[in-house]
Amino acid sequence: KSEMVTENNVMTQLRVLDLSGNNLSGEAFEESLVHAVNVGCGHLCDLNIGGKGTLISKEYSENLCKALEQNSILHFLRLEGATHGLTSDEILSIERSLFRNREEFFVRQNEKASSFNAFLSSTRTHPSNASCSSIDLESYNGIDEDKDVNSHIGADENKLGLSVLFSIPLAYHSPGGKVRALDTLSYKQEQDHLWTSFAGAQKNIDLRFGFATTETLRAEISNKCIAIHYTGHGSPEFLLFENGRGGVQFVSVKKLTSLLCAGTSGECGVEFVFVSACHSELVGQAFIKAGVKHVVCVKVLDRVLDRSAQQFSRVFYQHLANGYTVQDCFEIAKETVVEESSKFLLLPDNIDHQVPIFENAKPSEWTPIADPARVYGYGPSSTRLWKAPPPPAVPSVFVGRNVEIYFTLNSILGNTHIATLWGEEGVGKSTVARAVANYAYERKLFRDGVLYLRMDKVNSVSMLLRRLLQAVNRSCVSADVDLNFQFSPRSRAEEDTLMESQVESLAEILRYRNSLIVLDHCDSLAENTSSAAEFELFLGRLKDEVHGVHILITSRVSMYSGRFPGFPVKSLEIQRLRPRDGAMLFVRMCPHSRGRADLQVPGLKNASPPVVDPMGTNEEEYENGEDEMLRYDMLTSLSEDSRLRITGNIPKKIAALAYTISATDYHRLIYECQNVVGNVNSMLS
């Protein structure tokens, strides 16, 4: 009730107060509200007065804004659903005040605990630490400033945890200087398997997911994580981490050892590590040198199929979460991957591994993942300036575009804040844009997330502006900001005045944002000469006033290449797929496909598609710098079939062929190609 707000003996003791849904209104409530956010009221950090019944008059809306600006320590003010008289300028002012209060609070705490530095850096946008944070702002609402901050960082002290780090870089620079794609691991499937394994155990175990950078690994060690799982690419002497921009950071065994032991007495404090990567034995030894007691890895000369590694880890963690010892889990998991069981190692050899990692975990109720953004480090929507939904998902079958995604991402994150993707119809421009948006969203490369808009049938800047304003209006967290101008202009002068007002309003809302805006299918704008010129002026004006927003545009024709006034623009053409990638897409999309079995030749071990060593040791297998393997295999044979050649390696046409070919014709095609590959390799041998 509103009377509760006036009770000083209550307010001086509260950190969080939730009065939502209480139909709060009237002068007494409004005076109490202004008093509640005043610093003299106590240590209130989080106040929720939302709900359809809450009413704040225009006069007290202004007083509330002034109180927050001048004399408040409030961190979060929640008004969702409430009726109020706040203008868009006042909302921006309140957001800045709340953010300032949170930042000042964290700075004070940083003076007491140096380990808080990792969290402070994670609240700012920087590519190098974009994937580091597994902590959200809201978890700090109730911290007592006089207590040790270390006791509040991360999970509950009594809660055991496993940190799962995925390393999914897009591409690498070969010794010859070319940018080459890396195989994409199906990490989301592994994430689901791990979540299911721990949820089935129903234990009080903190399962966290993130992306593997050296900063993330170091942060987990500093936060006293007892168990770490790494999934990614490996080599005999290196472990591959993400570099924060879609590329690879090669971490040698020596450097990894130094990274793990930095700031410790020689032991990093981690009890268990699972390195799910090929050739990871020497990397496992590095973890042993850093004091890790139990390490699961793969023999130095062996590769492991992605599906085998996932099966092994799923069974392993099912039993580990239920209190089994590391040794027992290892032996049970090996039985499920009989053909490759000898490749897995449990190190070191000279100690007893009959030790449970989660033996003391207490029973606890688990719920499914409700918000994927929380898995990757985004806090609740109230801690961000956007609450826009995640970008559209990338198709489940998506091959051959890692290099394009890498170049686009680096263009946007670098000096080029505006990039355009163009190419013929059906070549996959929108899919690449979605992939870029999802990659950035999952790794928090932009503090305020991603805003994805389809521009179908938008043929003028005025229509584009209305769509942007509507999207920003829906995505603004603090309140229902009405940015839609309701009157219809009746003259050119009125239309110009309206557009100018809309541009100013949009620029003001975006001014303090750091986000990626994707404008997909801008074909109508690009193909109209006058609209394209007007669009260029609009983007130049927007970027001139808003420096934190990055823009990605897709269209059938090249729109801009060069510079807007003061801003470089990158134009990237999306080419047709390589023939081998086109063949792979066809096999994976066809409903009659048997998967990898269709790319193998009975009795011929080397006919399956080869895998390029990320360290470049297979560089000599490329001919004249082209990305075609010399060895004749199933993908090469399929790509030479007349039906696939007719598609021109355009993804849209390949998909149409895959879904229309009959089962009889498909299996006959596979059989014929297998015979051709077998005959060719027999002659070559």
TrEMBL record:
Residues covered by region (Disordered)? 598-618
Report the InterPro entries cross-referenced here: AAA+_ATPase, AAA_22, CHAT_dom, LRR_dom_sf, P-loop_NTPase
Which SUPFAM superfamilies does this entry report, sorted A to Z? P-loop containing nucleoside triphosphate hydrolases (SSF52540), RNI-like (SSF52047)
Gene3D superfamilies (alphabetical): P-loop containing nucleotide triphosphate hydrolases, Ribonuclease Inhibitor
This protein is called what? AAA+ ATPase domain-containing protein
Q: Name one Pfam family in it.
A: AAA_22
Q: Which residues form the AAA+ ATPase domain?
A: 415-580
Q: What molecular function terms (GO) are annotated for this protein?
A: ATP hydrolysis activity
**What organism is recorded for this protein?**
Aplanochytrium stocchinoi
